[in-house]
Amino acid sequence: MKKIKIFLAFLLALTALPLFSETEPYKKDLDRVVDKDGYLNEDDLREVNETYIRAVDAFRFDMPVVLMKSSGQDLDSWCDSFFRENDYGYGSNKNAIVLVIETDTDNVLLKGYGAGEEILTDDEKERLISPMMEQRSQNNPWLLCIWSYLNDVLDLLKANEPIRNKYADGKTVEEAAPRGKKPYWYPKDVNSFVDFHDENASRVVDDAHIFSDSEIARMKERIKEIQDESGFDLVVFTDTSSYGLSHGVYAADFHQFNGYGFGDDFSGTVLLICMEEGNRGWWTAATGKCQEIYTEKVINKIDDNLEPYMVKGQYGKGVLSYLDDIYRLYKLPSWYPRDTENFVPFRAESKSHCVDQIGLFSREEQAEIERQASEISAKYGTDFVVLTTDETIRYGTMASYARDFIKYCGYGEGENGDACVLCLKVTDGGSWASMVSSISGDGRKCYREKYLTNVLGHIKRMLLKNRHYEATIKALSLSDKMYRTGRVWHEIHFIWPIWFCLLLGLIVASNAVSKVDDKMKEIKFRKETSRYYVEDSFRLTSSKNTLVKEYSTTQVIEINDTPSYRSSYSSGSHRSSYSSSYRSSGGRSYSGGGRRF
Amino acid sequence: MRGEKENVSRSSSSIITRTKVYALSRAGFLNFSKLPVDASVKIKNELMDSIEPFDYSKLRPFDSGYLSGFMADRFDSNPDSELPRAQGFLMDESISRFRLTCNDFQTTKVSSNNLHLVNPSVEYAMLPVYLLNCSYEEKDYHYAINGQTGKFTGEFPISKNKKKFIYARNFLIPAGILYLILLFIQIFF
To answer: How far is the alpha carbon of A54 from chain B, nearest alpha carbon, in Å?
Structure first.
């Protein structure tokens, strides 16, 4: 009885053994480059296999390559049986992209399994195969083609990190990409979708339930203010999944398919916050007139402010701060006309030549600037205006802000409406200056871009020290000179070049003197003993080489696994991925950017 | 000696360096003939070493008649005291000869060596050398000339004023040119 018990316990232990054993996510012992006809030599094959294995480990994605002669079989079904019989693929979803090349016919098959199936679109197939076959057409060896392919496939995998994460272990293929499953607001047939406006739709859609009611109320209030102020629509949308779409496309789809956006071009933006595990991030998608406003610079600035909140999980606070930024972004100057399309250019009767919108100057300073600017304006028949502002985020550059000011405030003298604006922007971050001229006729010779830049160069250091008044007076006097003499030179620095010159002089002089010293020294303290060696007298009586030890060092070349791919790119750490133009599933053009957290 | 062989293989993902370290032992014979070693304490060894070689084919048995009309000094250093110098020279040359037998190795390093002199013999010889001494700006300068070949060695005196002039010239000209260039760049670009 005791023996039977021991035997049963032994059997039980055997059945439990697999529970404790750790299974590999993929079969490491299989060759990742299968060279059936010996196109690669042994060393190359081993090296390329080692690299592929490293790539598989790094990307958690299998990518076998087969080189073979045509077998007469259908390549697609051969690939399926090869893949399944050998048990290729990474993880439980068997994520892989398989490349099969028939070397004698140059027939190529690229097939995706698991996540690979979703990643590998027809366009991507073409992008992977073309460069490789181009290499081949130049009679390059197959080894080079395989390296080129690996490079491209890794780029593709980097760009599709969300999809790879989605299919990561623990999720079945069905869970990862529910076939046909789309969000509740998605149209049944995208192709027959007709654009519409829904002004009553909620502008805060919190499907991820990350905001409190009070936060939602405050957001709606702020969005209303922004809409009234700017005439552009704005939506905040959160969700727990992007349903296999990229953040950009999902945000754009939400905007389009729910009837958001004002005007014929549906001008507006949507902020998407995706809370999907492994795919968390936010994206701002803009369309219509807003596309021009949301430049990469603007997106980065706004995302920089939003990121700390998102990382800390303060989503409500973050979005409210985001809306403040958007308010500032959309805020139009008081002189900006409501209807720019029907704006009729005019000449203002009474014009101030010192438009201090932010109270930068005292009353006396303003009077002095006004006097000098008016004098220059009268003397040269060109409006010279000093303009101060604190926010030009809406405008890509201060110059475009100044140009709008000339245009919409009725500045300009003479037939051509000649004017020159010195625009000073002062914010917490510092002071900036820009000079813009809108001058035609003879004045062009004097008010050249180069000379305007020179004027700014002269006042730069004063602005850095926040001596705005002095800088303005200096700019006025230089502008006077510019018109009078036809040029303004760069600001010339006399002091700092001296240090460079002293250094160079010291180096050259020391070198010259040491050369002289060397030249005058004739003693060569060297005895040439080889002269006294009797030729051919060397007899080696014993020679022994004993291997003491052997070691190897490996310097790994890092595979950078950061997303960067084609039209979307990330410009560095803590920079937003930005796409200047992409299309929603409904075909509407959007621009936008966002980050992951 | 210690010798190392390295084999580097590269791939797009890694650089693998395989190193084999060997203990190398070499033994052999070399013959040296008529290695001159300065036997005068008064004259700098370096100075004498620098004017070699001498043509030994013209060596003659010593005769005091050769010295008539010349100021001559007898050797004042015995062979035992100069032997370490001579051994140093021989060792350096021997090592370089043995190294030639290790060309297969990328790096070699001598860890220990042993020089055993077989039948060494020492003979005094008088070799023709002209010695010149001069003083310039309170500093003595010594020169030696090989009486057979005319090979000359010694340090030339340098005028301090001329040295200052060279320094000033080489300081001011490039510094001045650079300064003008920097001003020019600022004005026109």
So the answer is: 8
Model-wide pTM > 0.95: no
Among A6-10, B152-156, B181-185, the least confident range: A6-10
Cα–Cα dist A22/A25, whole Å: 9
Give the three-state DSSP class for B82.
Answer: helix
Q: Is A560's pLDDT higher than 70?
A: no
Cα-Cα-Cα-Cα dihedral sign, residues A322, A326, A327, A328: positive
pLDDT single digits (tens) A345-378: 888 878 889 999 888 899 999 999 999 999 988 8
CB contact, 8 Å: A488 with chain B? Answer: no
Contacts of B17 in chain A (CB under 8 A): 552-555
Helix, strand and coil percent figures for chain A, each rounded to 5: 45, 20, 35
Task: Tell me, letter by letter, the H, E, C secondary structure of A35-77.
Answer: ECCCCCCHHHHHHHHHHHHHHHHHHCCECCEEEECCCCCCHHH
Q: Are the Cβ atoms of A526 and B187 closer than 8 angstroms?
A: no
Judged by DSSP in three states, A26 sits in coil
- Nearest Cα of chain A lies from the Cα of B73 at a distance, in angstroms, of 23
CB within 8 Å: B49 and A551 = no
Query: How close, in Å, is residue B143 to chain A by CA atoms?
Result: 9
CB A323 within 8 A of CB A226: yes
With beta carbons less than 8 A apart as the criterion, state whether B125 and B115 touch: no
The 10s digit of each residue's pLDDT in B52-82 is: 889 988 888 888 888 788 777 778 888 888 8
Q: A45-90, pLDDT tens digit by residue?
A: 887 888 888 788 878 888 899 888 887 778 888 888 888 888 888 8
pLDDT for the residue numbered A473: 93
Q: Residue ranges of the alpha helices (H) in A60-141? A: 75-86, 115-119, 122-137
Tell me the C-alpha distance between A183 and A171, whole Å: 19
Q: A209-244: per-residue pLDDT in tens? A: 899 989 999 999 999 988 887 888 999 999 988 888
Q: CA–CA separation, A562 vs A204, rounded Å?
A: 32
How far the first Cα of chain B sits from its last, in Å, is 62
CB contact under 8 A, A542 and B166: no
Over chain A, what is the mean pLDDT?
A: 80
A510: nearest CA partner in chain B: B167
Residue A332 pLDDT exceeds 80: no
CA A152 to chain B, closest CA, distance in angstroms equals 13
Q: Which residue of B has its CA nearest to A541?
A: B28
Interface touch A532/B35, C-beta < 8 Å: yes
pLDDT in tens, B112-160: 888 888 888 888 888 888 888 889 888 888 888 999 999 888 888 888 8
Taking CA atoms, what residue in B is nearest to A525?
A: B46
Q: In this complex, which of A521, A538, A544 lies closest to B30 when CB atoms are compared?
A: A538
Q: Is A54 on the interface with B (CB under 8 A)?
A: yes
Instruction: Check: CB of residue A205 under 8 Å from CB of residue A238.
Output: yes
How many interchain CB pairs under 8 A, A with B?
200
Size of chain A in residues:
597
With contact defined as beta carbons under 8 Å apart, do A26 and A54 qualify?
no
